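FYI - complex with glycinamide ribonucleotide, inputs then prediction.
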Amino acid sequence: MQKKINCIILASGNGSNALNLIHVFHIDTKEHKNAVCGINISAVVSNIKNAPVIEKVRLAAPDIPVFFLPYVSVSERGNFEKELESIIKRFNINCIILAGFMRILSKEFVSKFHKKIINIHPSLLPAFKGKDAIKSAFDYGVKYTGVTVHYVTPEVDAGPIICQEVVKIEETDTVESLELKIHDIEHRIYPAALKKIFV
Ligand code: GAR
C-alpha cells in the first residue's frame, strides 16, 4: 500500500488555499473512497486568534484538528516553533504546507525541516518577494505576474522553485480582479504541485 504523507497546514488569514487543499486531499478523497491519494491533511495551525481560516476549517472538516498558536511579534516565534514541533511529532508530520502563512520561520526551524516546508507565493519569484506581492506587482506596472510554489529555505521567498504559472495583467484589471485571477491559479497549482511531489 502507498505510504501516506502526513501534512500540516499553516495559515494566517482568509484560508482559501487551506480550504481548497482540504477539499482536494481530505473531503473529496473521503467522498470518493477509491481516489488515489498519498496526502493526508493531519492538522491545521493558525498564528492569528480570530483568523477566518480557523472557523472555516472547523466547519468544513470537523475531523481535522485546528490549533491556534500565537505568533504576531518576533518575541513569540520561539514558543510558536516549540509548540509547532510538538504537534509535528505528535502527528508524525512529514510535510509542512504554508498556505497564506504570513510570518517568517526562524533559520534554525527551517534548517531542521530541509525540503519539508513548501510555500505558495503570489508573484513570479524572485520578483516581488515578501508581503503584498499582488499589489506591489500591480503598482509597479508589470504586464505579467503570477504564482510560485517553492521549497522554503532560510532566506525568505528564495527556495528552489517547484512550479510557476504566469498571469497577464490586462489594462482593465484592478488589484481586486488580479487578486481573483491569482487565487484561481493558486487553487489549481498548489494541489497539483503537491500531487507531483508526493503522489
Ligand atoms: C495567497 O495569495 C498566498 O499566496 C499569499 O497569501 C494569500 C493567502 O490567501 N501568501 C503570501 O503572500 C506568502 N508570502 P488565503 O488565506 O485565501 O489562502
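The chain has six helices and seven strands. The domain at 1-113 is CATH 3.40.50.170 (Rossmann fold).
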